[in-house]
Amino acid sequence: MHPTESPNIRGGHDQARPSIKTPLAYSGSLDSFNHKDLTPVIGREYTGLQIAQVLDAKDRDRLIKDIAITVSQRGVVFFRDQDVTHLQMKDFCERLSILAGCPSSSSLHIHPLTEEGSELGDQISVISSVKQKKGGGLTHQLSDTSRFASVGWHADITFEKVPSDYAMLKIHTLPETGGDTLWASGYEIYDRLSPPMAVFLEGLTATHDASFFHDEAVRLGTPLREIIRGSPLNHGSSLNAVHPVIRTNPVTGWKSVFVNKGFTKRINGITKDESDVLLNYLFNLVTQNHDAQVRFRWNKNDLAIWDNRSNWHCATYDYDETRVGDRVCSLGEAPYLDLDSKSRREWLSLA
Question: Which residues, by range, are in coiled-coil regions (predicted)?
């Protein structure tokens, strides 16, 4: 049922509803490509499948749609040794989001700290260890608050009214060892909640905030981007949003926990003490359950695509050498919960 038609929808926004009415069905177009699942619950790796060739294929849209479905079901998908440019990445990510049912008002995201006149354009974020050493993004904030590597777990740009659906990252410069990235499944974390706790959390919202980017912009000498950042709802200097604690992914129809260490500051409608206890519990479910995670060791020109609606990721800063990649984020729908949607395990048991 479309979110605008169901009485059991919590959250969302009329200007940013998904364009699909039911979850998408995989057609099988990727079955002939060599692939393997990396864990039972999250991660898949393809070899011999080139994103650039998919863009030129006769059945391009079918292939891209199946990639979107696979990413949303498996959480993150890795493509080894990609010969793809940043312009092709932008084209692919935009098509991926559209074919997966993003609202017509959503496009590629412009990060608030993206420098105007950037060589790769507004819609490419350069993920650079050089910038990280200067304190760009989350790194500076985290270095002053914790010595636990797990403090870096986050989902991309959840501080926006309309956050990311998909993200693509290609690492082209990397150390000989180190710099792995971890992902964790929001579906699996939801499935580990007791039924009473799940029902309780489904009635709550949380505030996501990135106000620290204002200080970062001043310190780095980069004016904050207050223009429309990929959605008419994402603009201005306010970098905070309220989203459901549990959300539904429209591509799969599965429920996921949707709070993260990087940006979620407060669960609303309860006391701060209660909020702190609940957030710490949810964060611990993510960081302390290695069987809900996948760890990826990058090789040169490897590419990852993940679904930010039902995933967290965490970089590993265990290297001194240069590590650089290009990232593109598309925007999906305003987060909502469909009370009629199912968990991943429920869906698998029915399937």
Answer: none
* Residue closest to 175 by CA, chosen among 323, 28, 308, 38: 323
The whole model's pTM is what? 0.94
**Alpha carbons 165 and 187: distance in angstroms, whole number:** 15
Domains along the chain with CATH numbers: 28-350 (3.60.130.10)
> Is residue 5 within 8 Å of 12, Cβ to Cβ?
no
pLDDT at 146: 75
Helix (H) or strand (E) segment spanning residue 347: helix 344-350
Most distant CA atoms of the chain, gap in Å: 56
Helix (H) or strand (E) holding 54: helix 51-56
In eight-state DSSP terms, residue 19 is S
Residues of the chain under the 50 pLDDT cut: 1-2, 140-141
How big is the CA angle at 77 (ends 35 and 113), to the nearest 5 degrees? 155
Indicate the residue type of 5.
E
Could you give the dihedral angle defined by the CA atoms of residues 203, 152, 86 and 221, in that order, rounded to the nearest 10 degrees?
A: 100
pLDDT for residue 217: 85
Share of the chain above pLDDT 70, in %: 92
Token code pair at residue 278: 């609940």
